[in-house]
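At this stage, I put together a protein sequence along with its fold in token form, as given directly below:
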Amino acid sequence: MSAIWHDSGTWIALGVTLVTLVAAVVMHRIFVKILKEPAPEEREQLQKDE
């Protein structure tokens, strides 16, 4: 079983998986940030009200 950790394919698969997970978390945070912002029409209305 310890031979699996010496296989370069295992490390490549783990690296690709890690990069994919990091990218997914970053994209999720960006999407949530964008979706929490008011719509452009609402922003214009809020600026007019001030």
Remarks:
- The radius of gyration is 22 Å.
